[in-house]
Amino acid sequence: MERRTRSGRHRRGFTLVELMVAMAVVLVVISVAVPLYQKSLVRAKESVLRQNLTSMRTVIDEYTYDKQKAPQQLDDLVKEGYLRQLPLDPIVGNNTSWKVIMEDGAATVSQSEPGIFDVKSSSEKTSLEGTPYSEW
Q1: Smaller CB count within 10 Å for the chain: N or C?
Q2: Each residue's pLDDT tens digit, 77-104
Q3: Domain range for residue 50?
């Protein structure tokens, strides 16, 4: 902006009020954008968790069908080539803390060796829809 001084010379620049208004607008935009960004990060983690749980449950079923017994440990799925590596639990942030649900002794495929029936997240946090991740 160009302004005239009392001496008639032109000065360039912004006034303090103009700068403060611009800063206020920027702060309002940031205060709206940050929560939306954080929520989208949580949604992305939830989506990855759902996919990883579905994948692991499918692989556990395939292993159980092929071997006629359920896997004893999640590492068995990697050792036997059903998975390259255990998927990451994105909520907890690692692949070693999955909560393993073992078969009921009476309902096992192999009565002598009950194995893994299901897998869940070990997180105690609650999802955006209100259910604990450990119940998925």
Answers
A1: N
A2: 999 999 999 999 999 999 999 999 998 8
A3: 15-125
* Three-class secondary structure assignment of 22-76: HHHHHHHHHHHHHHHHHHHHHHHHHHHHHHHHHHHHHHHHHHHHHHCCCCCCCHH
Within a domain: residue 6?
Answer: no
Number of domains the chain contains? 1
Find the distance separating the first CA and the last CA of the chain, reported in whole Å.
59
> Residue 78 domain-assigned?
yes
Q: Is the pLDDT of residue 9 over 90?
A: no
Report the candidate in 84, 76, 82, 70 with the shortest Cα–Cα distance to residue 116.
Answer: 70
Single-letter residue type at 15: T
Structural domain contains residue 105: yes
Ramachandran category for residue 130: left, alpha or beta (phi over 0 → left; psi -120 to 50 → alpha): left
User: Is position 3 within any domain?
Assistant: no
Q: How far apart (Å, rounded) are the C-alpha atoms in residues 63 and 38?
A: 37
Any bridge partners for residue 12, and if so which? Answer: 2
pLDDT at residue 104, as a whole number: 80
